[in-house]
Amino acid sequence: MSMLLKHFFTKIIVIAFVFVLSIQSKTAVAQTHGIYDTILTAAVVYNGDTISAKTLESVFFYSKIDVANMSANAKWTRLRNAVYVTYPYARRAGAVLNDINAKLANVTDGNARKAYIRSREKELKKEFTDPLTNLSIYQGKVLMKLINRETGNNCYEIIKEYKGGITARLYQTVAFFFSTSLKQPYDKNGEDADIEKIVLEVQRMYGYKG
Predict the structure, then answer these.
(1) Helices H, strands E: what count in the chain?
(2) Using CA atoms, how far apart are residues 188 and 170, in angstroms rounded to an integer?
(3) How far apart are CA 43 and CA 52, in angstroms?
(4) What's 63's DSSP letter?
(5) Beta pairing partners, 50
(6) At what angle do helices 155-163 and 110-133 cross, to 10 degrees?
(7) Bridge partners of 57?
(8) How far is 175 from 164, CA to CA, in rounded Å?
(9) Torsion angle in degrees (nearest 10) through CA of 172, 184, 180, 133
(10) pTM of the predicted model, to two decimals?
């Protein structure tokens, strides 16, 4: 191949190469500024400026649960379960005692009072004997606390009022052997603050009125 012909083909190849680059450049420009190249993104307007907004992925933090935390959680769960189980009974007891007090307010005859109390006691035993005997000792302790909360009187005072001092002391002695007391108070701002929190939770959940 002569030098002239070789130079001619080289020139054509160079021109073709430049032409291809030109087309690619125009295509790239067209793609860069094309109508289908717009990327939609979230934005917020802050003080008149439009600022790109992005939602970051959630980041989860985990910590090891030590023995103390596990013990505290188990204690709270036990108390919470006991309140959920016993609070309906305490509310019922409070309603019954308020009703009894209202009925006895104008009854002065001793025999009539005793007869009325016996009739209500029989009614309550029929309603509550089975469910209450299924309570654990711990749940029973919580129930006595809640009865105090609902009535304003501890269980000893209630029994003494309606069944007499001897019966109240007998029940108190039995309670002592179960490491509890019928005379235990209810302090919603002190030692019973946790019970009070759970009671309020139960009231919100089931629509009880305080």
Answers:
(1) 7, 2
(2) 28
(3) 4
(4) -
(5) 45
(6) 140
(7) none
(8) 17
(9) 80
(10) 0.64
At residue 72, φ and ψ (nearest 5 deg) are: -65, -40
Render the burial of 140-176: b for 16+ CB within 10 Å, e for the rest: bbbbbbbbbbbbebbbbebbbbbbeeeebeebbeebe
Q: What is the DSSP letter of 44?
A: E
In this prediction, residue 35 carries a pLDDT of: 57
Six token digits for residue 90: 């305490």
Beta strands in the chain (DSSP E): 43-46, 49-52
Give the span between the Cα atoms of 113 and 78, in whole angstroms.
40
- Containing 156, the helix (H) or strand (E) segment is helix 155-163
Q: Which residues, other chains included, contact 86 with Cβ-Cβ below 8 Å and sequence gap of 6+?
A: 135, 139, 142, 143, 146
DSSP 189-206: TTTTHHHHHHHHHHHHHH
**Chain segment 108-149, per-residue pLDDT in tens:** 898 998 888 888 888 888 888 888 888 898 998 899 899 999
Q: What is the pLDDT of residues 188-199, one digit of tens each?
A: 999 999 999 999
Q: Let me know: does 95 contact 128? Beta carbons within 8 Å.
A: no
Structure token pair of residue 76: 């709270």
Residue 42 to residue 56: CA distance in whole angstroms:
12
